[in-house]
């Protein structure tokens, strides 16, 4: 199976040939820092191969010392991008970087004990199809 992906500014475009074995929503503090959100949504494959269509030469990778944690990103727009971990034996792909359906659903929330204090009962808060209208701040009171 082929998957296509890119960064937000389209400077980096890639294809992945193969299947994803796992899909986890990681709540560890490093993944929360990586994403600026409640969790990272990462796909994992030990057999898929990545082909960089464009922008491979600009991709930056940050590795946390003395750990397996790393993050690749576009230096122009900051989008998270695929990275090889565990000495190149594991391809980790941020699910949001794909432009095609990964054909796999998340299997689990992991490192849940590390989740943010505000990451509770999120399914109960209001849902909107688009950005809700903010109050009109231009009106005089």
Q: What descriptors fit this protein?
A:
141 residues; mainly beta; Metal Binding Protein, Guanine Nucleotide Exchange Factor, Chain A; 5-stranded mixed beta sheet; 3-stranded antiparallel beta sheet; 1 helix; 11 strands
How many whole angstroms does the radius of gyration measure?
Answer: 17 Å
Give me the strand/helix succession.
EEEHEEEEEEEE
Helix tally equals 1
Query: What does the largest sheet look like?
Result: 5 strands, mixed
Helical proportion, percent range: under 10%
Return the average pLDDT rounded to an integer: 92
- CATH class, anyone? Mainly Beta
- What is the percentage of strand-forming residues? 25-35%
Number of domains: 1
Would you count the extended β strands for me? 11
Order of neighbouring strands in the sheet with most strands? 9-10-4-3-11
Which overall shape is indicated by the principal axes computed on the Cα atoms? globular
Structure notes:
This protein is mainly beta. It has a single domain, classed as Metal Binding Protein, Guanine Nucleotide Exchange Factor, Chain A (Beta Complex). The protein has a 5-stranded mixed beta sheet with strand order 9-10-4-3-11. β9 and β10 form a beta hairpin. It is globular, with a radius of gyration of 17 Å. The protein starts with a strand and ends in a 31-residue tail after the last strand. The mean pLDDT is 92.
């Amino acid at each position: 199976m082929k998957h296509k992906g890119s960064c937000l500014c389209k400077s980096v475009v890639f294809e992945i040939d193969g299947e994803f074995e796992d899909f986890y929503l990681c709540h560890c503090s490093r993944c929360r820092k990586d994403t600026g959100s409640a969790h990272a949504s990462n796909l994992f494959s030990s057999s898929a191969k990545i082909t960089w269509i464009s922008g491979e030469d600009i991709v930056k990778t940050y590795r946390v010392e003395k750990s397996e944690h790393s993050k690749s990103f576009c230096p122009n727009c900051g989008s998270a991008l695929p990275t090889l971990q565990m000495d190149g034996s594991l391809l980790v792909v941020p699910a949001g970087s794909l432009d095609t359906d990964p054909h796999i659903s998340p299997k689990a929330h992991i490192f849940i004990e590390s989740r943010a204090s505000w990451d509770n009962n999120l399914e109960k808060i209001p849902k909107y199809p688009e950005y809700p209208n903010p109050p009109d701040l231009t009106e005089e009171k």
